[in-house]
Amino acid sequence: MKLQSAVCFFAHPDDETLFAGGMIALMASQGIAVQVVCATRGEGGEWGEPPLATRLTLGRVREAELRCACRALGAGVTVLDYVDPTIGPDEALFAFEAHFDTLAGQLADITRRFRADVVLTHGADGEYGHPAHQLLHRAVLRGVSYALPHTPLYTVAANVPSIEDHMWNKNEPAHLALDIRPWADAKAAAMECHATQTALFKRRRELKTVREALRPTESVRRAHPFTHGEPPDDAFARLLKMAGAWVVG
User: Fold this and answer.
1) pLDDT values of the chain reduced to their tens digit, one per residue, 249 residues
2) How far apart are CA 79 and CA 16, in angstroms?
3) Structural domain of residue 119, as residue ranges?
C-alpha cells in the first residue's frame, strides 16, 4: 500500500517541529498529505524575550506561529479547543482538561476524516515528562487502536541508546531512527516560526541560535499494531527506510 495521508497529534504548538519536523517535511516532499492536529494553542506557555504577546493574546499568537511552521514543513493544520494550563511555580507542567473518552473518540474521528494511513503522536513518557503529552498519547492510543485497528500508530522521540538526548522517551526503545539533515532547512524554518519559544529553545541547551537547537536525528516506535519484537514493515516504515532510516536495536 502506498502511503497517501498522515495525521500527527501533538499537545502544543512547536511539538510538531521539535519532535517530528524532519519526518513531516519528508512525507510532504513525497506528496503525502500531512495534517498536524494540535490539542491546544499553547496559551499557558512562554511569550518571548522580549515579549511578543500577552497572556491574553498568547494563544492567538502561538496558533499563528503553528500555521507558519506547518507551511514551512508542508503540512495542514487543525487546532482543537482544549486550553493549555499556565505553567506553575518551579516550572510545574499540567495536562489540559478533557473528558478522556470524549477526547479519544474525537481523535479517532479526526483520523477517519483525513483517511490517515499512519498516525504519529507523543510517547508514553511525554518526552520530558509533560503531563499533556502523556494524556494525548493515551487518548490517541485508545481512540485510534480501538476504532481503526489496522492503522499504524507511531510514537515520536523513541529512545535511541547510542544518541544521548534528554527528550527521548526512555521507556520506549526506537524501532527506526532517521538522520533528518536533508530536511533541516524546512525544520529550521519551522522552528524560526515559533518566535515566542525561541528563547526557550536556546535556554534549554545554552545555545546561541535556534538552528543549533535542531536535533539531527528523529526516531519513532510503532505502538500499534504490536510488532512482537520484529521491526515494523508497513508503508511508513518503508518510506523512512527509503529515506535512510536505520533499524534500532
Assistant:
1) 789 999 999 999 999 999 999 999 999 999 999 999 999 999 999 999 899 999 999 999 999 999 999 999 999 999 999 999 999 898 899 999 999 999 999 999 999 999 999 999 999 999 999 999 999 999 999 999 999 999 999 999 999 999 999 999 999 999 999 999 999 999 999 999 999 998 877 777 776 788 888 889 999 999 999 888 889 999 999 999 999 999 997
2) 12
3) 5-247
The CATH code of the domain that includes 109 is: 3.40.50.10320
Rg (CA), the chain: 17
Instruction: Report the domain count for the chain.
Output: 1
- Per DSSP, 123 falls in state -
C-beta separation of 128 from 166 below 8 A: yes
What Å distances lie between residue 9 and 47, 106, 124, 134, CA to CA? 23, 12, 13, 12
Backbone angles phi, psi at 71, to 5 degrees: -65, -40
pTM of the full predicted structure?
A: 0.96
CB atoms within 10 A of CB 184: 17
- Give the C-alpha separation, 87 to 147, whole Å: 34
d(CA 54, CA 50): 11
| Residue 188 CB coordination number (10 Å) | 18
